[in-house]
Amino acid sequence: MPAAGMTATGMTATGMTATGMTVTDWFALLHPVLIILFVYPVVGATIRLGILARERRLDINPLPPTVGVEHTDHGRWVTSGVVVAVLIAMAATYARGGAVVVGGSGTGVALLLAGVGCLVSCLALWRAKGAGLRAGFALICWLGLLTLGAQPALWHLGRSPFDGSVWGSHYWSGVLLCGLLLFAMAAAPETLRSPRMRRLHVSAAFLTALLLAVQAISGSRDLLGMALGQ
């Protein structure tokens, strides 16, 4: 027999489960779960494959040519995983804040279309061949994420880069991380052919690694703040 005020599925009339979490809370947990269980392990493999690809290019280690291809493929999975995780976090934040209800059905449809556009653009990067198409899809995806994040209903630290709190923002470091990953994915063919692009890729990779560390720290901080009701 379900407890008083609770349905047979274990959910209360207010939408809260027996654990004290709402359905939206459980959905929001998909963001850190996806990052921890998928993105970060694949990041480690991508870095390792990148080092091996460099050793092969410099004739330090006799490795098969597939190493570079695997490095590129792993990078694509990292980028796609991060984009999906960001979209999940934004969707959960909008749902928790009631942005769709407050703004009406038109707002909900617009947000949904923007999210779908970001996802489709990211997936299109897997197939696009021309440099212009790849750059266009990467830019559309990144601008879509920026547009979704710029809505007043989505709270985050700082609204301007001149605001000191921006540099501790999980959102802003995440958006910058997405931009770097999308650029690396879009420029992968040029990176393989051009030494100058490879040097730029390595420099961007160091910044990406730093941002991944910042994301881990700021994300843990924000989760703790949510648990404490801050």
Automatic annotation (TrEMBL):
Record flagged with keyword Repeat: no
Keywords recorded for this protein, A-Z: Membrane, Transmembrane, Transmembrane helix
Keyword Transmembrane helix: yes
Residues that span the membrane, as ranges: 26-47, 77-95, 101-125, 137-158, 170-188, 200-218
Highest taxon, organism lineage: Bacteria
Protein name: DUF4079 domain-containing protein
The organism's taxonomic lineage, starting at the top: Bacteria, Bacillati, Cyanobacteriota, Cyanophyceae, Synechococcales
